[in-house]
Model the fold of this input.
Amino acid sequence: MDVQTRMIAVIDDDIRVLESLVNLLASFGYKAESYISAEQFLGSGGLSRTSCIITDIEMRQMSGLGLLQHVISSKSAVPVIIITGKRSDKSEAFYLEKGAVGFFRKPVDADALLDLIGSVCV
Done:
């Protein structure tokens, strides 16, 4: 699948972060859809047309970790990248052990994110 046909779902309840990530991805030729909650994403049927998920960990209802667990329990092979702006005692290793393919603190390192997307989001 080439870069133009890959769909990346970006899920974050912070509109500024959501818009900036979607714009970043679009500027590198990716098709990205934005969602303000995990529930909105799942309710849209987005999982079936998504090649990669970037999700905030802290959201109002279902957390990014809850979404990651849902993706895994549904036997989907869609890779999930976790982002957070909150201080936490949980490390990158914690999220990787739970099944995420990457973990970034905000502000997200755009180059590192794009490198990861290029290697795992197919």
Summary: The chain is about 40% helix and 20% strand. The longest helix spans residues 15-27. Residues 8 and 52 are 5 Å apart (CA to CA).
